């Protein structure tokens, strides 16, 4: 756990990581008593952590059922992509040729996604793909934006998990991530930006088509 954070914040970060990793799925209950036992924490501490996750758009309280991992709706999806376009396209437009460590971080995410694809672990493919996009936003060199975008990533993961065929959704993007990385490494921000804009348009369109039934109540 992270030194210097309150126990509630540490639990919040672990639960958010479980959402990003696809271990907590939309609609799953988050039971205070169970979490208190798992984390050796008081119910008040768990309640604080769950309240913070709710403020981040990752959980919701359902009357007579308690706190559950959130299911996103169509308008939420559109808003997530509005944010992605703002941050990812700006990050690319203002980027300089990648430093070695930046390039390595992106390549590590791409290669991890490819290994997951080879073993047909499509949930992991999606998670590692999102990590690549976190490294794109990190080009803005803003810890505040990095933290904000991590919440966006967690919400995107909740959308991916509801796909009727996650393999069908995840398969097209790996080669495009590699191309974007290559242009960024070469300092060709115009090509990288155009490719990312097309990528986000295609991804949003596919998600809306695939997830319309599950995004409606």
TrEMBL record:
Statement: the UniProt record of this protein carries the keyword Transcription regulation: yes
Keyword rRNA-binding: no
InterPro entries, sorted: GntR_C, TF_FadR/GntR_C, Tscrpt_reg_HTH_GntR, WH-like_DNA-bd_sf, WH_DNA-bd_sf
PROSITE patterns tied to this protein: HTH_GNTR
Family annotation (Gene3D superfamilies): GntR ligand-binding domain-like (1.20.120.530), Winged helix-like DNA-binding domain superfamily/Winged helix DNA-binding domain (1.10.10.10)
UniProt entry keywords in alphabetical sequence: DNA-binding, Transcription, Transcription regulation
Pfam annotation, one family: FCD
Residue span(s) of domain HTH gntR-type: 5-72
Protein name: GntR family transcriptional regulator
């Amino acid at each position: 756990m992270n030194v210097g954070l309150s126990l509630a914040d540490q639990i919040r970060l672990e639960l958010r990581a479980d959402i990003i990793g696809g271990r907590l799925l939309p609609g799953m209950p988050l039971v205070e008593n169970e979490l208190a036992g798992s984390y050796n924490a008081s119910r008040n501490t768990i309640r604080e952590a769950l309240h913070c996750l709710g403020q981040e758009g990752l959980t919701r309280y359902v009357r007579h059922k308690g706190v559950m991992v959130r299911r996103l709706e169509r308008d939420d999806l559109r808003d997530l992509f509005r944010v992605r376009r703002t941050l990812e396209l700006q990050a690319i437009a203002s980027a300089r040729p990648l430093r070695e460590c930046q390039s390595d971080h992106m390549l590590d995410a791409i290669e991890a996604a490819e290994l997951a694809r080879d073993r047909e672990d499509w949930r992991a493919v999606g998670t590692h793909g999102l990590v690549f996009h976190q490294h794109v936003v990190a080009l803005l060199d803003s810890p505040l934006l990095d933290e904000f975008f991590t919440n966006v990533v967690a919400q995107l993961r909740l959308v991916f998990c509801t796909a009727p065929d996650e393999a069908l959704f995840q398969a097209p993007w790996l080669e495009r991530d590699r191309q974007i990385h290559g242009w960024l490494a070469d300092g060709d921000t115009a090509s990288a930006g155009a490719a990312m804009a097309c990528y986000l348009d295609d991804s949003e369109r596919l998600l809306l088509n695939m997830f319309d039934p599950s995004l409606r109540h």
